[in-house]
Design brief:
By secondary structure, the chain is α/β, with parallel strands linked by helices. The chain contains 10 helices and 10 strands. The protein has a 10-stranded mixed β-sheet, with helices on both faces. Strand 4, helix 4 and strand 5 form a beta-alpha-beta unit. Helix 1 crosses helix 2, helix 3 packs parallel to helix 4 and helix 8 packs parallel to helix 10.
């Protein structure tokens, strides 16, 4: 199977936004797009009394898949699109289709509904098992001209470097400009902070936090220089809460990239609190990467 972008489609307004964004991403990547609609009644209506109903329901499901492909064609004329009707659990079908894909694209809500606390089963299961990054597209994603800006946040963790890797790969393939942002805040006062200040009187807690942010940026710069030297990179260390700072940068970006924590069945443990907040609220699409650099 050739490389392609996968977009889930269920007919909801959120899925329409996802397919439109996926069509643009596929065109920029120079890849075809598969618009996948999954129906869950395969094999359940095959007995003689319900066989006709099965054919009728399947025909309706095929119309939904074809509708999604037409949404992509109208959004981005010239993009190569295939409508796919698949059977079984939606997340598993999407993951299976993404074996040779650089991206899976889903709507923020619809069948993969998100809240500030929990993530719907389709999106969460897809994030847990996808062989590639997953992009969550907000229903209100603006349809303005692309800014060619990709933003990624770093915090010194290996998961953050995985996000940098994913951001660099996407920027390299699309010609986008990459902005790497490290956020820092002065630690709260407490016994541990008082002990630290006693042992390190020449360095303030604020300075320590700022240095840690600068170190995170240096690691990101090194990775990008080694693996994606063609990408134009801007690095910023900013004071403030990471969710708010990154959300502000996302307002002018085509894509925000975040990392994950692991494979837990709980959304907050998969994404981490910062990534979860941004996936649910960022103004632009959010690419979630589980990869960790070797």
């Amino acid at each position: 199977m050739t490389e392609h972008v996968v977009a889930g489609y269920d007919g909801s307004p959120e899925a329409v936004a996802a397919v439109r964004w996926a069509a643009g991403a596929a065109k920029r990547l120079g890849l075809p797009l598969q618009v996948v609609h999954v129906w869950g009644l395969a094999g359940q209506l095959d007995s003689p009394p319900t066989r006709a109903a099965s054919a009728y329901v399947r025909a309706g499901a095929r119309e939904v898949a074809d509708e999604g492909a037409e949404v992509a064609r109208q959004a981005v004329p010239g993009v190569e699109v295939e409508a796919v009707l698949d059977d079984g659990p939606p997340a598993r079908a999407l993951v299976d289709r993404a074996v040779d894909a650089p991206l899976i694209v889903l709507g923020r809500q619809g069948s993969a509904r998100l809240s500030g606390v929990l993530m719907g089963s389709v999106a969460l299961a897809t994030l847990q098992h996808a062989p590639c990054p997953v992009v969550i597209v907000p229903r209100t994603s603006p349809e303005e001209a692309p800014t060619d800006l990709v933003v990624v946040g770093v915090d010194g963790s290996r998961q953050a470097l995985g996000a940098v890797e994913a951001a660099g790969r996407y920027a390299s393939r699309t010609g986008a400009h990459l902005r790497v942002v490290a956020c820092w805040q002065a630690p709260l006062h407490g016994r541990s902070l008082a002990d630290w200040m006693r042992d390190h009187p020449d360095v303030s807690p604020e300075e320590l936090a700022r240095r840690a942010a600068e170190d995170s940026l240096e690691h990101a710069r090194t990775l990008l220089h080694d693996r994606y030297p063609d990408v134009e990179v801007e690095t910023l260390a900013e004071e403030g809460p990471a969710p708010r700072v990154l959300a502000r940068h996302a307002e002018k970006a085509d894509l925000l990239v975040v990392g994950t924590r692991g494979r837990s069945g709980l959304a907050g443990l998969v994404l981490g609190s910062v990534s979860q907040w941004l996936v649910a609220r960022a103004a632009c699409p959010v690419l979630v990467s589980r990869a960790v650099p070797q």
